[in-house]
Design a protein that fits this description.
The complex is a heterotrimer of chains A (368), B (299) and C (363). Chain B has 299 residues and is an all-alpha fold. Chain B has 17 helices and no strands. Chain B is globular, with a radius of gyration of 24 Å. Chain C has two domains: 228 residues, P-loop containing nucleotide triphosphate hydrolases (Rossmann fold); 121 residues, OB fold (Dihydrolipoamide Acetyltransferase, E2P) (Beta Barrel), CATH 2.40.50.140. Classes of the chains: A alpha/beta (368), B mainly alpha (299), C alpha+beta (363). Chains in contact: A-B, B-C. Chain A: It is found in: Periplasm.
Chain lengths: 368, 299, 363
């Protein structure tokens, strides 16, 4: 099993891997030039001593997190931050079960936290008394707090596709928009994009959930022969676009900046994209539980949330953050009002309950 | 002639027949020397494996249901067949490409260092980077296709990347050293005077190869085939990156289930994979030609 | 034996083998007669094995020619030369049974299975290993393995058999037994044997003729007794048997006998090859066992005499070995059969030794 884990790659661990073809940094020059906002004071209740051990996804994401809130937090709170790469719900499960909890806080998703919590008691409850009031209630849940907004969207090559595809009916329409496709697959713990399949079949966004699996698979059937890759890590669709292997694919929006910076004529079409979030979870029995809670509260304050958007094109969960972000930067964030309204909110609850069935049905369909 | 005396004195022991008096004396030293390793393996290898096997029959309660449903599990069956088939092809390709390279390595000592470096070079690169390299090479606008088009051999690019063929090529490349090195080792152990003897006795080079070199290199071939096949069974990243849209391997299925926190099913699949590997190893030792070759290696 | 098995003649003409800078074989010319047992004898590095390998075809000559029965074989690959070969390490195929090992050359020649079985059985009979056909080489002793190798080398009735130190890895008793067997085989088969060894005793016992090799060249070719009695140079005299070397100055020449001044006395010696001028410095050689103390000749002491002092006396069972010092300090070894009837000398004794002119060779 350990071999498996070391070889499988998490959603963002391979973020830096694109180096093969793309050497450009993730930080866009325009944003880098604008002054980063500084959090100068914090409530005394967030101050403390000792340390907090935080597991993230490593790579570029880790660099962004250090600059956006690890370093400022250390300075202002007096609590030392130790960052670890390779956050993974399966590791949390093993840690909690063996009583050897090595992390105080982990970057996960609402889905993986609740999925685990469904099987036992693996996470501490969030102390919402100290969480900033600007954090939208939609991002709060009992055992975790969402802290990073990103999107799974349609991306296309402008030189291979005439016009701008808008939505999944266009993605499915290989006559109007010729060329091969790539979509997110299930091979390394991925989730099939059944929402997209349904919207392609004409289901309006507000009727997507609960997902009709049969209908989704029937819709998938129409695009199956044109999908040359069911990707399992975010680097792959970017590489496929770069190499002109596909004209259109689904992507994680954060990846596109580097591609565009490298001069590849590729564009995001936000229409009918899925808005997803990363969340903080405190493993049950974490030694520095109190410090972890303080960090959770701090990192979701308006300014730290704005700072992360400077470093990486992911959005904020704090409604007050947008004030601190320059308009041209805001324009590429999934949390920007103009973009947010085009996106469908990913329904973690449906997936927590139906993941196994959906994935297994998808596998069977794919192999048939 | 006093062959009886000789038998006692040693030439037999020297050529590896284990019936001499010295074979009977128990020598505990090797076991003592190996003890730390054995303990290490027990603690850090055997126990986790046993724990995993236990999980496949005890999670959440004692049951064999996980195994009982496998024969009706279409996804499992297809995936297993695909993994097995890919491993088979990769093993075959590695053998056909690797044997001549192993020959060159041993028979052309002047070039051996260069060949060895070329073999080992990909060894020192991560599987991920190598997979990316294959993407660059085999893509529709990759070097291979561009070259063929430039040479006028094809009009439009061939679809190689993102097909099972790409998986087979990339996996063979990655696993080739595991085929070459044991074969080269076996070839190196062949006494050169045997080849001279064969030639002197009237056997032209190609017959010497078939009648002497090939059979004597069988231990290496068997080791190489085993290594490559068993390693190929566990492949994960390469097929995911360069393979076709419908290529799911057993390892991917396991990863999927681990991620879904369905560890009992993942353990079941792992147990099946492990059992398959063990069965293949067992079958190899039983093959008449190969088994004999293995035993001969004691010489 | 019948005519088909008559031995091949081998002719080496100015044969050379160069490796980078050294000449492993440096101009060897040798005619080996049909049916002869010829031994290439020499120390390691003398070029004897390289010469054999060139005859077999495993090494390509840098210059010169090899002819078998008058036909040059230099351009012929080994597998077409039809020569039997026995290697020092036996070179039996470990993956084949004794029967298949011996049948190997027959199989290459397309001999049908039934015929093959018969010939293999005969060959096993010949090397006294009947019934061993089903075993694997690793189940045999060293001596048995070598006999299988021998059977394999002769089963296809080659007219020439090459052997490269075939008994080198065996112990003394086994070696002597096999030497006799090889002689017998040679006599039975009537084919030509070329045998390489560094063991002079082995060479002397087995060979019809011996070619002594040194530094890539043939130092002398001849029958064993010729080499022993009439070595034509210091190397041969030293390499085969034990020799005394006496510095001398030529004073006179009478037909093929030279008169030389040696240790203050006049000594006569045969000079079969050289014609030295008067006054030239030469070396005379004699065998220790051909020398006697003068009083042991019972009045028939031969011409060559010399006064010596005994410096060492060793009783070695069947003989006594004395180390003597001549007037000018040259050391001389004398070996005398031990007999209770012969007076033994003590260290420090003064004595006169005497030996025959026929046993004195100028080299």
């Amino acid at each position: 099993m350990s071999k498996l884990r070391s070889t499988r790659f998490g959603r963002r661990t391979t973020l830096g891997l694109l180096g093969a073809g793309l050497a450009a940094p993730f930080i866009r020059p325009a944003a880098a030039q604008a002054a980063w906002p500084e959090q100068t004071t914090i409530p005394d209740i967030l101050k403390g001593s000792g340390e907090v051990r935080i597991a993230g996804f490593g790579g570029t994401m880790n660099d962004a997190q250090i600059k956006a809130y690890y370093e400022p937090f250390e300075k202002i709170s007096g609590i030392k931050v130790r960052a670890f790469p390779g956050s993974d719900p399966t590791k949390i499960k093993a840690m909690v079960e063996t009583g050897n909890v090595e992390w105080d806080l982990a970057q996960l998703s609402r889905g993986s936290i609740m999925n685990l919590q469904k099987r036992g008691d693996y996470f501490e409850k969030i102390d919402y008394d100290i969480v900033d009031s600007g954090v939208d209630p939609a991002y709060r849940f009992e055992y975790g707090l969402e802290m990073l907004v990103w999107a799974q969207v349609l991306a296309y090559r402008k030189d291979l596709v005439k016009g701008e595809p808008k939505g999944w009916a266009d993605f499915w329409d290989t006559k109007k928009f010729p060329g091969e496709r790539a979509m997110y697959g299930t091979t390394s713990g991925g989730f099939p994009e059944m929402e997209f399949a349904l919207m392609a079949a004409g289901v309006p966004p507000d009727k997507v959930y609960p997902i009709d699996i049969d209908k989704a698979l029937a819709s998938y059937e129409k695009i199956k022969k044109d999908v040359i890759k069911w990707w399992d890590t975010g680097a792959v669709p970017i590489q496929l676009l770069t190499d002109r292997e596909v004209s259109m694919t689904t992507v994680w929006n954060g990846r596109m900046a580097a591609l565009q910076a490298a001069g590849v004529p590729a564009e995001i079409s936000w229409a009918q994209g899925l808005s997803k979030r990363d969340a903080w979870g405190i493993p049950k029995g974490a030694k520095n539980k109190a410090n972890a809670m303080k960090f959770v509260a701090y990192s979701t304050m308006a300014i730290p949330q704005a700072r992360i958007a400077f470093a990486i094109p992911y959005g904020s969960v704090n409604n007050a953050s947008n004030e601190y972000i320059p308009p041209d930067r805001l324009a590429v964030l999934p949390s920007a009002p103009d973009i947010k309204k085009q996106l469908l909110n990913y329904n973690y609850d449906w997936w927590i309950d139906n993941r196994e069935a959906a994935v297994n049905r998808f596998n069977k369909w794919l192999l048939s | 002639m006093s062959e009886a005396v000789l038998r006692e004195r040693g030439p037999l022991a020297r050529i590896g027949l284990r019936s001499g008096p010295e074979a009977r004396a128990p020598n505990l030293m090797p076991y003592l020397l190996a003890a730390p390793l054995i303990l290490f393996m027990l603690a850090f290898y055997a126990m986790p494996v046993v724990a995993m096997l236990m999980r496949s029959v005890s999670d959440p309660t004692w049951t064999v249901a996980n195994y009982a449903t496998l024969p009706d599990d279409a996804v499992f069956l297809k995936t297993f067949a695909n993994t097995f088939y890919t491993s088979l092809i990769v093993t075959l390709v590695s053998l056909l490409l690797g044997y001549p390279v192993a020959m060159a390595l041993v028979r052309a000592p002047r070039w051996a260092p260069i060949i060895l470096v070329l073999i080992m070079l990909p060894f020192w690169t991560s599987v991920l980077v190598r997979s990316y390299a294959w993407m660059v090479l085999l893509g529709r606008h990759g070097l291979f296709n561009e070259a063929l088009i430039a040479a006028g051999m094809i009009d439009r690019p061939l679809r190689i990347l993102n097909t099972p063929l790409a998986t087979q090529i990339a996996m063979s490349h990655i696993l080739l050293p595991y085929m070459i090195l044991p074969i080269a080792n076996a070839l190196r152990q062949i006494d050169p005077s045997l080849l001279r003897a064969a030639s002197g006795l009237g056997s032209p080079p190609w017959r010497t190869f078939l009648q002497v070199t090939l059979p004597l290199s069988m231990p290496g071939v068997a080791a190489g085939v085993l290594l490559v096949f068993v390693l190929a069974l566990g492949f994960y990243i390469t097929p995911a990156m360069v393979g076709g849209p419908r290529e799911i391997t057993i390892s991917m299925l396991i990863a999927q289930r681990v991620d879904q926190l369905d560890w009992a099913y993942a353990a079941t699949l792992s147990a099946v994979l492990l059992a398959t590997a063990l069965a293949i190893i067992g079958a190899f030792y039983r093959l008449p030609g190969v088994g004999n070759a293995f035993r001969m290696n004691a010489r | 034996m019948n005519g088909a098995a008559r031995g091949a003649s081998v002719s080496l003409a100015d044969l050379e083998k160069r490796y980078d800078r050294t000449n492993a074989v440096d101009g060897v010319s040798l005619d080996i007669r049909s049916g002869e047992f010829l031994t290439l004898l020499g120390p390691s590095g003398s070029g004897k094995t390289t010469t054999l390998m060139m005859i077999a075809g495993f090494e390509t000559p840098s210059a010169g020619d090899i002819a078998i029965d008058g036909t040059s074989v230099v351009a012929m690959p080994p597998y077409r030369r039809n020569i039997g070969m026995v290697f020092q390490n036996y070179a039996l195929f470990p993956h084949l049974t004794v029967e298949d090992n011996i049948g190997f050359p027959l199989k290459q020649r397309g001999v049908p299975k039934a015929e093959r079985t018969k010939l293999v059985a005969e060959a096993l009979e010949l090397v006294q290993l009947p019934g061993y056909g089903g075993r694997y080489p690793r189940q045999l002793s060293g001596g048995q393995q070598q006999r299988v190798a021998l059977a394999r080398a002769i089963v296809f009735k080659p007219r020439l058999l090459l052997m490269d130190e075939p008994l080198g890895a065996l112990d003394k008793q086994l070696r002597e037994n096999l030497q006799l067997e090889m002689r017998r085989l040679h006599a039975d088969l009537g084919i030509t044997f070329i045998y390489v060894t560094h063991d002079q005793e082995e060479a002397l016992t087995m060979s019809d003729r011996i070619a002594v090799m040194n530094d890539g060249k043939v130092a002398q070719v001849g029958r064993p007794e010729d080499l022993y009695d009439r070595p034509c140079n210091r190397f041969v005299a030293g390499f085969i048997g034990e020799s005394n070397f006496l510095p001398a100055v030529v004073r006179d020449l009478e037909d093929d006998v030279v008169v030389a001044e040696c240790e203050g006395v006049m000594v006569r010696a045969l000079c079969p090859t050289l014609r030295p001028a008067s006054g030239s410095k030469v070396t005379l050689t004699t065998r220790p066992e051909r020398l006697r103390f003068a009083d042991a000749w019972n009045g028939n002491a031969p011409q060559n005499r010399m006064s010596v002092t005994v410096t060492e006396a060793v009783f070695a069972g069947e003989r006594c070995r004395y180390l003597l010092r001549a007037t000018d300090g040259t050391s001389i070894v004398l070996k005398e059969p031990s007999s209770a009837a012969i007076r033994r000398r003590q260290v420090g004794d003064q004595a006169e030794i005497a030996w025959s002119v026929a046993d004195t060779i100028l080299v």
